[in-house]
Write a structure and sequence with these properties.
Keywords: ATP-binding, Cytoplasm, Kinase, NAD, NADP, Nucleotide-binding, Transferase
Strand content: 35-45%
Number of strands: 16
CATH superfamily of the largest domain: Probable inorganic polyphosphate/atp-NAD kinase, domain 2
CATH architecture of the largest domain: Sandwich
Shape: elongated
Radius of gyration: 20 Å
Catalytic activity: NAD(+) + ATP = ADP + NADP(+) + H(+)
Number of domains: 2
Helix content: 10-25%
GO molecular function: ATP binding; metal ion binding; NAD binding; NAD+ kinase activity
Structural class: alpha/beta
Order of helices and strands: EHEEHEEHHEEEEEHEEEEEEH
Cofactor: a divalent metal cation
Number of helices: 6
CATH class of the largest domain: Mainly Beta
Mean pLDDT: 93
Distance between the termini: 38 Å
Family: Belongs to the NAD kinase family.
Bound molecules: NADP nicotinamide-adenine-dinucleotide phosphate, manganese (II) ion
Length: about 260
Amino acid sequence: MISRKNLYFFFKQTPEMKDIVTPLKNLAEVHGFHLVHSIEEANIIVSVGGDNAFLQAIRKTGFREDCLYIGVNTDQLGFYTDFTINDQERMIQAMKNEELEVRLYPVLEVSVNNEKPIFCLNECSIRSNVIKTFVIDVVIDDFAFETFRGDGMIVSTPTGSTAYNKSVRGAVIDPTLPSMQVSELASLNNNQYRTLGSPFVLGPDRTLLLKVVQDGNDHPIIGADNEALSLRHAKDIRIQLADRQIKVLKLKTNSFWQKVQRNFL
Ligand code: NAP
Ligand code: MN
């Protein structure tokens, strides 16, 4: 078993959060973990906060393949947070049995205008920032599939399927299926314009190319999870499942479907 002992805590640097995290740090040290002060030295990264904090922790630490991520919620359990701050002993126990509790989550690799790819854990969203509709040519593996006209599109991972994707009636996808789901934001459908109109799911070897038609209304906001990319102009957005997956520590007794039930039913 790989020895994972170098722990890095990722949280919002406020006095309140520091007070919350201090006992957790002490507990980790008592149990033989080594607290490190830089992300580079870490092989376990603990996010303290909600799902939004977890998404930030993953992004700010670079979607590390060689790290184990742990989400500790300060409130209720979330989708990426399997532990709460009041659950500390249980968390230490789970960490000691690392191999039993690790899940791999697929992530998206997104390249805009052929630039260096970025990763997404929930979704990549493309939305218009103008009042008029904007137009996207949707290409699957070099095959021109449809031309979309409307507000935008969401491409979500399985774990992201319960987030933005679900709000637009996308399906909830089991994270054991490496796949990406494409859903529409208010597509225009009439005798002139036609899109599939329902969300669709692509397998792990597909590449999706969204070509923003350059017609003067081509000003999308591109979102990677909870951050907007600072891009003035986007022409080609290429999305595929990344080769890497992230490792997340989970309680065996808290499956994805239990989370879905707890949160929605
Ligand atoms: P936010 O706007 O503060 O929160 C969105 C809500 O989604 C929060 O309750 C958040 O949980 C929850 N959430 C995050 N990831 C989730 C997941 N994988 N499954 C189920 N729920 C999830 O923004 P945020 O907290 O930074 O989260 C960013 C996410 O918000 C984006 O990735 C996108 O999926 C989603 N979003 C949704 C809509 C919509 O539904 N119309 C619009 C924009 C963005 P916590 O409270 O634990 O953070
Ligand atoms: Mn939030």
